[in-house]
Q: What sequence folds into this?
């Protein structure tokens, strides 16, 4: 199980790795790197995916500096924080707090 105590220290330019997939998705979705970094650094884990490969991952709910909700899937491996994907949660799929699925 991943904890925010493990995630937060890895939210640095030196230890945060964006996959090609997340870079493409962020550009398409208008998510800036600074938004992602802020959201993960100040977020909370709302789901765990222990069976993901090559490393277990989790879903972090955070908010940008402008208070825009942001979901970020991350995993920890080889001493770095891998960002798998990031998106703004759709209100029709998530309850008002964006931490529970409908």
A:
């Amino acid at each position: 199980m991943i904890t925010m105590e493990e995630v937060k220290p890895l939210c640095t330019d030196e230890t945060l790795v964006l996959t090609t997939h997340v870079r493409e998705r962020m550009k398409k979705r208008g998510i800036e790197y600074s938004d992602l970094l802020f959201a993960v650094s100040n977020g909370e884990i709302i789901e765990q995916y222990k069976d993901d490969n090559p490393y277990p991952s989790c879903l972090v709910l955070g908010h940008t500096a402008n208070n825009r909700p942001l979901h970020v899937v991350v995993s920890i491996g080889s001493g770095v924080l891998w960002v798998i994907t990031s998106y703004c949660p759709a209100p029709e799929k998530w309850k008002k707090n964006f931490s529970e699925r409908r």
User: Anything to note?
Assistant: The two ends are 24 Å apart (CA to CA). The first strand starts at residue 16 and ends at 18. The CA atoms of residues 21 and 97 lie 26 Å apart.
